[in-house]
């Protein structure tokens, strides 16, 4: 006899249920009591049919917000929606935490982050109740001003405005302070970072005016630091006249012209302007404190002399350098580079090194080249795009027994990436990992290597992920181009979970332009016809969740894309997500509603139509007008609800705006299948005649179609014959095509075709030529080949059917 108990127990196991014996003397509640060793509900095994536990679904990484940034972004979102904002104490703490983190890590403040911090600071100023301070101490304001770093090419208005507000508030507090208060700190402590931000954000002229206002004549070393920032900002803005004027003001104010200011001026005239005369003039200008030109200044002059073939003047410079300090290593390194620039071969450079060593031995001093000399030569070869010579310099260093340092490997990576030797670049990177790199100088090149590996046709996925893991372990900054390239890799491989993790970790650190560039990669993937629809939908979901700031035109393009894929349900969801946006500027307008309804009309999806129509009814910001009534009428008529569609015609007629030509054409099309539609068509035609409205050929064709839809053949024939009298045009392909399309049933259609061929042979031939088409595709050799046989309009039937609402 089979055991029913065994079967019952197995069913309970399959359904993950507990077995309780009804004859057991222990009360059932005892079975539910958990002891210390009893697992919690989260640890109960989840069995499948075969007794194996299911693998838990992978959870995406949380968004990587910097300290305080999430709260400031929340304030921005709530202000845009008109909601209650967080408490000022919470916002002030978020502001402080954010800039303390930036100061600690010495990282850049991105544009979107500066904008959020600016909104937070302005909000705190607006709602302040205490005139002496608004939940932020003076020291916390100084931390924010000092940490407000940005890249050279940012030109951010948010950085500029926030810096002005912070400095202005500090000045207000300084003026209101007494001698015993902590606000009495040197002005320079606030002035230097303020000038730096102004100069870097495209406002160097105003920064100069601020220095003039607060400047106290000083001649000590380092006093020219804010003036150097102004000069550097003017060079980025390429304002040569203002640079000249600033130098005159510096001389008037007795500002020491040190080697840093000298470097800024020389680099501008030598590298940016390429002006040899002014480069000579300022290179010979005396430098304060007896300082010599910096190494970077000498490099700039060297490059200009090579470019302009000014070797005679260059020779005098380097001879003077050698005479001034013949035993200086840096002087010899530049001499080697100058000789190489003048055309000396690698072998000749090596003989110069031997002479250098021999002269040192004769003088009894240790004078030998080192790896820094080799690095300078490799850098020169890189600047001349000569990787072959660069490799020979590397071999030269090996012959002399120089151990490559971090700079050597970085230069190797640079020229190998340029020539596409990604394997060699990876090898150099592998050696680089064993070296100590100051201030993360390798990050720009590693980012370039990642972009190159991602773009390589023979993509090495393991190598890419190895680099990503190394950077992630270092908590290094990924450039926006790198994130975009990695996003493309994940998209091509269909790794949506990895894509979400990547974007959550990095995408919220960038400015608006950088985020848009990354978003466009996902957008292109969605819009590519070769992308399978399920993958396009997954990509869209990642896009909408990560880039919530996506504007209405972009979302509308995505909606149309899914309509083109014959997925009106997905397109309606895209529209619904747009409709759910809390920010008013990101919500659909009347035109967007009309475009969505037009797509639904082409798809004939009544369920999507009802969904969107309900959205219209609930949207208080949408006012029905003729365009929207047209879209509703077209959508309902194409979804088999022609009778209901005509109710919107009457709404249009009685509205203040009144019907348009598109309204008339759509209404006549609805009459094709509406009950007693021929009577409505005659009524519309009567009003057109009564009010002497000009009838276009499209409207007249739609009028013929209204009768053809009810199989009134003789009436249609008469209307076609009267076309020239009514609209001034002879029967053409549009009129015959509409007559044919609207006629129901294959037998009746054949009757129309036979009549048209005999009555209007020319229009009939034009119709055939107009409708003939061939669907082609590319074969393996890239040649076009027929994919579908040629078909005529009579088999396809689409002419004159699309209407712009």
UniProtKB/TrEMBL annotation:
Pfam families: PPR. It comes from the Eukaryota. Gene3D superfamilies: Tetratricopeptide repeat domain (1.25.40.10). InterPro entries: PPR-containing_protein (IPR050667), PPR_rpt (IPR002885), TPR-like_helical_dom_sf (IPR011990). This is Uncharacterized protein. The lineage of its organism: Eukaryota, Fungi, Dikarya, Ascomycota, Pezizomycotina.
């Amino acid at each position: 006899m089979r055991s029913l108990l065994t079967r019952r127990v197995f069913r309970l196991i399959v359904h993950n249920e507990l077995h309780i014996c009804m004859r057991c003397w222990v009360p059932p509640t005892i079975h539910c009591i958990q002891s210390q060793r009893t697992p919690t509900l989260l640890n109960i095994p989840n069995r499948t049919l075969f007794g194996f536990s299911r693998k838990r679904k992978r959870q995406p990484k949380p968004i990587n917000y910097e300290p305080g940034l999430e709260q400031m972004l929340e304030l921005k979102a709530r202000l845009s929606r008109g909601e209650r904002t967080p408490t000022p104490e919470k916002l002030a703490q978020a502001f402080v935490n954010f800039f303390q983190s930036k100061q600690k890590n010495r990282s850049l403040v991105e544009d979107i982050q500066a904008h959020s911090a600016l909104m937070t600071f302005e909000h705190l100023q607006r709602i302040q109740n205490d005139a002496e301070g608004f939940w932020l101490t003076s020291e916390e304001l100084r931390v924010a001003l000092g940490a407000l770093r940005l890249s050279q090419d940012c030109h951010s208005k948010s950085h500029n405005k926030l810096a002005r507000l912070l400095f202005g508030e500090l000045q207000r507090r300084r003026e209101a302070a007494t001698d015993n208060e902590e606000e009495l700190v040197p002005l320079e402590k606030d002035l230097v970072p303020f000038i730096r931000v102004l100069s870097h954000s495209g406002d160097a002229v105003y920064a100069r005016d601020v220095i003039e206002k607060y400047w106290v004549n000083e001649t000590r070393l380092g006093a020219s630091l804010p003036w150097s920032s102004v000069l550097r900002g003017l060079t980025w803005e390429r304002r040569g006249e203002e640079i000249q004027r600033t130098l005159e003001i510096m001389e008037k104010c007795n500002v020491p012209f040190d080697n840093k200011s000298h470097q800024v001026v020389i680099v501008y005239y030598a590298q940016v302007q390429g002006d040899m005369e002014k480069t000579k003039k300022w290179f010979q200008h005396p430098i304060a404190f007896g300082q010599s030109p910096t190494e970077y200044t000498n490099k700039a002059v060297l490059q200009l002399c090579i470019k302009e073939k000014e070797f005679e003047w260059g020779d005098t410079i380097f001879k003077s350098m050698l005479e001034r300090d013949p035993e200086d290593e840096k002087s010899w390194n530049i001499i080697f580079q100058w000789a190489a620039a003048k055309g000396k071969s690698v072998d000749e450079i090596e003989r110069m090194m031997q002479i250098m060593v021999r002269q040192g031995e004769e003088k009894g001093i240790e004078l030998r080249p080192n790896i820094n000399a080799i690095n300078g030569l490799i850098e020169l070869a890189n600047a001349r795009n000569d990787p072959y010579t660069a490799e020979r310099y590397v071999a030269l260093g090996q012959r002399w027994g120089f151990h490559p340092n971090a700079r050597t490997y970085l230069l190797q990576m640079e020229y190998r990436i340029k020539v596409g030797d990604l394997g060699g670049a990876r090898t150099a990177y592998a050696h680089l990992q064993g070296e100590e790199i100051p201030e993360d100088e390798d990050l720009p090149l590693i980012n370039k290597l990642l972009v190159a590996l991602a773009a390589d046709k023979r993509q090495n996925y393991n190598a890419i992920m190895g680099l990503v893991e190394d950077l992630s372990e270092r908590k290094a900054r990924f450039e926006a181009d790198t994130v975009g390239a990695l996003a493309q890799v994940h998209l091509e491989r269909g790794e949506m979970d990895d894509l979400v993790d990547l974007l959550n970790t990095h995408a919220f650190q960038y400015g608006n332009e950088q985020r848009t560039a990354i978003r466009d990669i996902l957008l292109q993937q969605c819009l590519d016809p070769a992308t399978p629809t399920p993958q396009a939908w997954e990509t869209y979901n990642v896009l909408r969740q990560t880039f919530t700031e996506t504007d209405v035109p972009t979302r509308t393009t995505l909606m149309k894309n899914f309509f083109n894929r014959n997925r009106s349900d997905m397109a309606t969801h895209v529209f619904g997500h747009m409709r759910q946006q809390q920010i008013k500027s990101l919500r659909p307008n009347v035109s967007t509603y009309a475009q969505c309804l037009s797509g639904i009309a082409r798809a004939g999806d009544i369920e999507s139509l009802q969904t969107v129509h309900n959205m219209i009814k609930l949207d208080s910001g949408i006012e029905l007008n003729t365009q929207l009534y047209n879209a509703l009428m077209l959508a309902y008529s194409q979804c088999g609800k022609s009778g209901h569609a005509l109710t919107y015609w009457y709404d249009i007629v009685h509205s203040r705006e009144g019907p348009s030509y598109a309204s008339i054409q759509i209404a006549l099309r609805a009459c094709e299948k509406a009950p007693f539609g021929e009577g409505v068509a005659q009524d519309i035609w009567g009003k057109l005649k009564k009010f002497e409205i000009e009838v276009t050929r499209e409207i007249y064709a739609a009028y013929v179609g209204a009768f053809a839809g009810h199989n009134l053949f003789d009436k249609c024939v008469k209307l076609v014959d009267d076309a020239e009298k009514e609209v001034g045009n002879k029967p053409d392909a549009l009129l015959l095509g509409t007559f044919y399309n609207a006629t129901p049933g294959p037998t009746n259609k054949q009757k129309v075709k036979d009549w048209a061929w005999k009555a209007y042979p020319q229009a009939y031939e034009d119709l055939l030529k107009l409708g003939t088409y061939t669907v082609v595709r590319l074969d393996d050799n890239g040649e076009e080949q027929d994919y579908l046989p040629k078909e005529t309009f009579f088999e396809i039937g689409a002419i004159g059917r699309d209407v712009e609402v």
